[in-house]
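Design job #97: recover the sequence.
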């Protein structure tokens, strides 16, 4: 009996510690003076309550200070600010710097991991990393080689590390992590190498494995209950993650999870998306290929899936579903609803009830989208929730070794990983988008572990009969599925947006401009050209009572892969090199954090 009492006491103490750590992290997220995870908050709104910098004075913004990362290639993600310390990360080799904001940005410590450079050619679409996160006194980094490392936030010392995958079979990482309660959630990259996607939870204290849920496979792998897990309100059924695959194809099925994660503490559900099925040649994998291209809602403690929604069954265009899930509470038809809004690569903006997975809105957020006419919204239809594919743009129907032309959007989607923002003041989403179309020719490809498993040749170009550019920055009404205003850009907007209580929205451009626009009208209020193209995400914080705005510049990513990797063949970079060839006329490689403030 004594042992039982001791065990109960120990569990109670451990549980209290977990609750305290989670409460502390939530409190820090609620403090607009800090920016402690990449998404700003668990809801992925990328909204700040700071308003010292506002629509009336943002025109006076000046550069306050800069910091060179010492690394070229694409700089995605953003710095963090925890108290008086800023944490800055880089692309491969994934250096982390801790900078003292009270002492002119002096380097407190640096972490420089030793990684095998052989991981570089296995990484799709540049050597980017979307940043570190803070929790429980630690800085969490998921390195390119899939090493997850916890660093002491004060000293940079390694507290623990664990290997999440094997680059030898194509498993790499480009994403950030999400600390939730006593766990750290991480994904995996490598869909172009036949990797089977998964989300993994490690215990924050020591890095031990808590649970792992795969994107496809038997129920024991996907962590699905065939009767309780639902898809559009109906049970998924037994082994739904293998039923729409031929034989053992699911074992190399793709569905990787290199995007963003969000979390609802009240529901205790984690939300994220899975990517393309492998290979890009749809003829080689008949069926819906579940659960690639899917929005997931999982229990944070156990990983069990509550509901799923597959947006693009049997993907034929590489329209990964990994983009962020933005959680908002809004009224629809006079009733309060817990909503999830997602801007998919396939060009449709989705709004769902995040409690049940009910589909509420599915509308095109770029008028150029042509591969499908609509998503069927009638629950009584056997096509409910499915996009209606246009035969002319179906790479499957046109067949192998046939070049399907004029498909909009291109494989990099109407929006890729670059995160949108949401303002509760305007109830609008601010979305950085790609305005790009493609030609797509699938061909037969054999699977060899660790070798590319793509099976398609692509060419990309601006959407025809439009403004001539390759991007737009839009304001979107998620309840109605309507564009409220749209700002044309010469190149794709590959930077993450930031909305603030100052009634302004910030974003960056591939040429290198940081821009501020009026949240209500889209009127441009400020621009400044940074040393390199911006594919990082804008963030804000205060130091010494003063508001600052910071962004990483350093051109690269999929859109800038030609510049970043020195590629010149138009079809290289999975088709992006030719489409963005003109980018070299406007910017060059860099690696700089630029911090802005109003003059004293």
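Job complete. Output follows.
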């Amino acid at each position: 009996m004594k042992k039982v009492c001791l065990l109960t006491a120990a569990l109670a103490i451990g549980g209290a510690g977990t609750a305290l750590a989670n409460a502390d992290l939530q409190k820090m997220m609620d403090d607009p003076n800090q920016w402690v995870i990449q998404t700003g908050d668990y809801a992925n709104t990328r909204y700040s309550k700071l308003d010292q910098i506002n629509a009336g004075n943002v025109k006076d913004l000046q550069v306050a200070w800069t910091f060179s990362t010492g690394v070229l290639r694409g700089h995605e993600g953003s710095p963090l600010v925890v108290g008086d310390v800023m944490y800055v990360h880089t692309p491969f080799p994934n250096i982390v710097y801790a900078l003292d904001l009270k002492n002119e940005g002096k380097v407190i410590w640096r972490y420089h991991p030793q990684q095998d450079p052989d991981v570089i050619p296995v990484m799709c679409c540049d050597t980017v990393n979307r940043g570190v996160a803070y929790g429980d006194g630690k800085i969490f980094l998921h390195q390119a080689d899939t090493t997850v490392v916890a660093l002491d936030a004060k000293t940079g010392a390694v507290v623990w590390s664990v290997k999440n995958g094997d680059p030898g079979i194509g498993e790499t990482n480009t994403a950030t992590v999400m600390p939730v309660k006593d766990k750290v959630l991480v994904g995996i990259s490598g869909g172009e190498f036949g990797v089977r996607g998964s989300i993994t939870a490690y215990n924050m204290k020591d890095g031990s494995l808590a649970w792992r849920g795969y994107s496809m496979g038997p129920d024991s792998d996907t962590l699905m209950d065939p009767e309780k897990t639902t898809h559009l309100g109906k049970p998924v059924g037994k082994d739904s993650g293998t039923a729409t695959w031929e034989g053992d194809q699911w074992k190399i099925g793709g569905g990787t999870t290199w995007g963003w994660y969000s979390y609802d503490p009240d529901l205790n559900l984690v939300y994220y998306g899975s990517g393309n099925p492998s290979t890009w040649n749809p003829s080689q994998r008949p069926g819906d290929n579940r659960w690639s291209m899917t929005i997931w809602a999982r229990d944070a403690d156990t990983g069990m899936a509550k509901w799923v929604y597959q947006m693009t069954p049997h993907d034929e265009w590489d329209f990964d579903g990994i983009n962020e899930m933005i959680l908002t509470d809004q009224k629809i038809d006079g009733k309060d609803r817990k909503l999830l809004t997602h801007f998919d690569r396939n060009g449709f903006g989705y709004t769902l009830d995040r409690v049940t997975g009910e589909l509420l809105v599915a509308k095109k957020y770029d008028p150029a989208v042509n591969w499908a006419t609509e998503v069927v919204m009638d629950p009584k239809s056997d096509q409910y929730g499915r996009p209606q594919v246009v035969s002319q743009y179906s790479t499957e129907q046109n067949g192998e070794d046939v070049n399907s032309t004029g498909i909009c959007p291109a494989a990099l989607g109407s929006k890729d990983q670059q995160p949108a923002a949401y303002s509760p003041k305007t109830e609008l989403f601010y979305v950085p988008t790609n305005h790009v179309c493609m030609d797509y020719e699938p061909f037969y490809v054999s699977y060899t572990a660790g070798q590319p498993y793509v099976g398609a040749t692509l060419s990309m170009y601006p959407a025809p009969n439009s403004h001539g550019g390759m991007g737009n920055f839009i304001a979107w009404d998620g309840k109605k599925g309507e564009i409220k205003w749209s700002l044309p850009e010469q190149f794709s907007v590959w930077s993450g947006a930031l909305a603030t209580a100052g009634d302004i929205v910030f974003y960056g451009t591939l040429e290198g401009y940081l821009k501020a626009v009026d949240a209500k009208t889209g009127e441009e209020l400020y621009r400044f050209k940074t040393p390199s193209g911006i594919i990082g995400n804008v963030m804000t914080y205060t130091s010494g009572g003063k508001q600052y705005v910071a962004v990483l510049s350093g051109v690269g990513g999929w859109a800038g892969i030609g510049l970043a990797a020195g590629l010149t063949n138009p079809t290289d970079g999975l088709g992006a090199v030719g489409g963005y060839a003109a980018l070299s006329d406007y910017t060059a490689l860099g690696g700089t954090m630029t911090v802005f403030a109003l003059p004293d």
